[in-house]
Amino acid sequence: MQTPVTILGIDPGSQITGVGVIESQGNELKHIYSESLKLPKGELPIRLENLHSRLQNIIAQTRPDIVSIERVFVAKNPQSALVLGHARGAAMLSAVMNKIPVVEYSATEIKKTVVGKGRADKAQVQHMMRVLLGLRVAPEVDAADALAAAVCHAHHQQINQAIKRRG
């Protein structure tokens, strides 16, 4: 029997950051927690501090074994990409300060893993999170993206373990 692994998925954003925590044990996935963290209006440093503080609380409550975070895509607006990078940095810092390893997946990789196609839309990701995690209602968009990052890692972890057993 495999040991359960708690995975915190993060979909970083400077206004809304999605968080989703699942437990993975073999082929079983269990929803633990998810939320779309709406950050306060105002200066970026204040929003980043708020994000870091809230993630610290979530980490303390859920005690994840690993953090799976969406990798930055190349944005059309360089300023938006820079601000998003800061939010990712705050999220990664929250994990690293708690000695939690961080893995990164591109949005396309996450969608391909959980929906079956890399260009899946937000509604498809929400639907798959509801189905895969046995939720009565689909999570909010940002929370669904975060859960998808966690589920993506769970699937990759299963594949890697299967390869090790055969090798």
CATH fold-type name: Nucleotidyltransferase, domain 5
Please identify, by name, the CATH architecture.
Answer: 2-Layer Sandwich
State the major sheet: 5 strands, mixed
CATH class: Alpha Beta
Going by helix content, strand content and strand pairing, the class is alpha/beta
Please state the overall shape, judged from the principal axes of the Cα atoms: globular
Radius of gyration: 15 Å
Instruction: Estimate what percentage of residues fall within beta strands.
Output: 15-25%
Number of domains: 1
Order of helices and strands: EEEHEHEHHH
Low-pLDDT stretches are none
Count, helices? 5
- The portion of residues assigned to helices is 40-55%
- Alpha carbon gap, first and last residue: 19 Å
Strand order of the largest sheet: 3-2-1-4-5
How many β-strand runs? 5
User: Oligomerization state of this entry?
Assistant: single chain
Q: Residue-averaged pLDDT, rounded?
A: 93
How would you describe this protein?
The chain has one domain: Nucleotidyltransferase, domain 5, CATH 3.30.420. The radius of gyration is 15 Å and the shape is globular. The mean pLDDT is 93. It contains five helices and five strands. It is α/β, with parallel strands linked by helices and 167 residues long. β4, α2 and β5 form a beta-alpha-beta unit.
